[in-house]
Every structure is written in C-alpha cells, then in structure tokens.
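User: Is it possible to get a 3D structure for a protein together with its bound compound? The compound here is beta-D-fucofuranose. I've pasted both below.
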Amino acid sequence: MRTHLPSRKVIAVLTAALLATGMAACGNSDTGGSGSGDDGKITLGFSQVGAESGWRTANTTSIKEAATEAGIDLKFDDAQQKQENQIKAIRNFIQQKVDVIAFSPVVESGWDTVLKEAKDAKIPVILTDRSVDSADKSLYKSFLGSDFVKEGRLAGEWLVEQKKAAAGPVNIVELQGTTGSAPANDRKKGFAEAIAANSNLKIIASQSGDFTRAGGKQVMEQFLKANPKIDVLFAHNDDMGLGALEAITAAGKVPGKDITIITVDAVKDGMQALADGKFNFIAECSPLLGPQLMDLVKKVHNGEEVPARIETQETTFTQEQAKEALPNRKY
Ligand code: GYE
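Assistant: Yes, that's possible. Here is the predicted structure of the complex:
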C-alpha cells in the first residue's frame, strides 16, 4: 500500500526546515557571521608549542585576538612541547582541509615529511616564532620571528662591556631553552660568539631548563651545589631566570649583585625583576606576532607573494630602562 500523502508532507516539512536554516545562516553572515565553518572565512590551523612560559602565553593571546580581529576562523592546538603532538595536529589540519597552516616548531629538525604532506595537499604553511632546518625552502611560504642569534649576541656584548675591568676569571652558568629548539641553539651560539675573544669570561656549566620556571629553579640548584663561584647567569628566557632567582636566594646569595643575571624575552615579570634590581639585563624578544601572522595568512591564501623571512623588531633593557618601560608594557 502506498501512502503518498504523508511522505509529501514530510518533504514539505523538511523543505521548510531547510529554507529556515538557510535563511538563518544568511542572516548570520549578514551580521558578521560569528558561526564556525563554511561562511567564506579563511580557516587557519595553528599548532602552538605549549604554555611553557610567559612569552608563550602572550604569544597565544596575540594570535587568538588577531585571528578574531581579522575575521579568520582559527583552529588552535596546544602541543604541550612535544613534536609528535605537533605532527599529529598538522596531519589533522591537512585532513580537515584548512586553508592555511601555521606553526611554531618546538624543535628545528624532523619536519620534512609532514611539511611535504601539507605541500602535496596544496595547503600553504607559515612558520612563526621558531624555524625549521629543512633544506627544501619550498616547504613553507614564510618565516615570521626574531633573530635569536642576535639576541644571544646582544646579551654577550653587554656582559663583555660590564666585565671589561674584571681582574680574575668570570664564571658563567647558562640555562638553555628546550633542547633542539631554534631559540636555544641560536641564543647559545650568539652569546658564545660575543664572549669568545675574552678569555677571562668562561662558561663553566650549561644545561637545559626547558624554558620553564620549574626547570630553571631545579637546574640552578644543581649549578649552585656543584660550583662554589658563580659570577654570571645567562638564562635563555625570563621564566628560567625567575625560577633561578628562588634557587639563588635559597643558597644565601643576592641575585643581581652576587650573581649578574642576563635573560631574554622582557615579559612583564622579567621586566619587574629587572626594575627591582634582581636581573641585570634583558634582550627583548617580542611575542606579539598575531597581527603580522594574520596579514601573511590572508596574502598567502590570496596567492600573493610574501617575503621568505620577516624579522621582528626588538631592543634591549637595562635596569633603568626597565623602570621606564614597565608601566606601558603590554605583556
Ligand atoms: O623566548 C621562550 C619561549 O620561541 C621565542 O619560547 C620563543 C621562546 C621564548 O618558551 O620564553
């Protein structure tokens, strides 16, 4: 037995429902489209390193805010400082057919395979903050970020100037960032180059504190136990320096006086320590990459040519300069 009538009714109801949804969707996009998905927005898959430092938190905020501002649909993934998580996230983005992929590679090596997969899927990739060591530069469109070698060099040059009248040997300990990461490799290199000609400046210990406060504290404790005379600490970021402050104070030494402390980043907590006289010098590294990144995403999506390298502009801070800059510091 056929029952034409009810099925027609069902069709009519479905049609009405579909029309209503369609109209609602139109209404949404007319008013700026806050919805997810297929509303003509560019979709950006972004794989972040983690949340290891104040710098990273400020960087994540900058990226999220800039995406909203630019009307870009952001799919954000936190890799918890693990390369395997980043590779998984990038593969997911490829599967979801996002328009553009951007990421801040936790370490420099081991990206060729997944970058090739993105290229084969015709999804452009932008590197932000940290770079990769891939020989094939066609695997990504652009690298936006700081010159980490320069940061290390600026830190070293300041120290050379400070210690030029030092009579005896100056013992330096170094807290490195995440092993294998571009900023750890490059800051170490730049610093070593800058102090190389001064034989009284000696790095007596150098170890990774993984860019975290906890890591900085723990490794500094070991340094202090193993080395009775430490004159200088060079920490590859503020957070490790801040962790080290606790270890130094607990060992009965006065940070900024007994031990000269140099760091990189200039996030608010670091700047506060500098203004308070606990740190002595900071080489700035700006985390506010969001707006420039969104600009690149749009251009790359439109098929426009973009520069292969965009370098972030940065400065350095002494204690006096930190006092001046602190009230207006954004991060
Ligand atoms: O200096 C550090 C963060 O890649 C520049 O990563 C970034 C570094 C930054 O954890 O604080």
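Residues 1-36 have pLDDT under 50 and may be disordered. Residues 52-53, 55-56, 129-130, 183, 211, 237, 239, 264-265, 285 surround beta-D-fucofuranose (CB under 6 Å).
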